[in-house]
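Final report, Chapter 2: Outcomes

The project's central promise was a pipeline that accepts a single protein chain and returns its three-dimensional structure in a standardized token representation, suitable for archiving and comparison. That pipeline is now operational. To close this chapter, we reproduce one record exactly as it appears in the project archive, with the input sequence first and the structure output second.
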Amino acid sequence: MITLGLHGACGRMGIRIAACALEEGDFRIAAALERPENPDLGKPYGALVGLPPLTLPLASSWSERLGCLIDFSSPAGTRSALAACLATRTPLLVGTTGLPQELKAELSAAASTIPVLVAPNMSVGVNVLVNIVAAAARALGPSYDVEIVETHHREKQDAPSGTALRLAQSVAEARALDPVRDAVHGRHGAVGPRRPREIGLHAVRGGDVVGEHTVLFAGLGDRVEITHRAHSRDTFARGALRAARFLASAPPGLHGIDRALGLA
């Protein structure tokens, strides 16, 4: 039985991870964590989120080593989770997106002490998509222009999505491009003709869309479109649990999502 902590436990992802962990049966949720200013601290977590079997109180901290802490919170929340994981030697799985570079560096440094895995998307399907996109970028070659379009619900805080940025990185690695310098985020006005090295990224926000990513390879005479659509957050939750199983027994280090999901 793997003892699990959920940081951002009352968020959309935290609730679905908790529900899926109950179904899968090999996890025990030992810590349900939210911000210190959350007014519901101390109340039974399960009653708050509609999962009555979970009677542990909602808390803002913990003190014992866990099998894994899964963090879906905010950049500030991730930083506090990292400090607590270092103090308790708890493996840390980060699904929070929009992390600043300095925090990414802190996570990398922490990997010398604890197992750390940072992934913008833990869906098995999306991570297969990343690999397919890299293969397509290599096979089709630079004569095919690449545009990435992502769509998410209206409440999403960052743009473009972490997954879109990971897809752009995959294309850049396959074509020896720079995922920052060669990225073009939307277009407006008299921008002129498209440069051959551009990787276009476009963010759409609206309604309750869980997540959709399309990579368009447009050539002279044809185009290839590769799309992943998430129908439910459970696809991310179950991928996170799969990665947590790996991380709970992994040595200290900065681990990759492909290996954690069994794709490498």
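Archive annotation: The first strand starts at residue 2 and ends at 7.
This record, like all others produced under the grant, will remain available to the consortium after the project formally closes.
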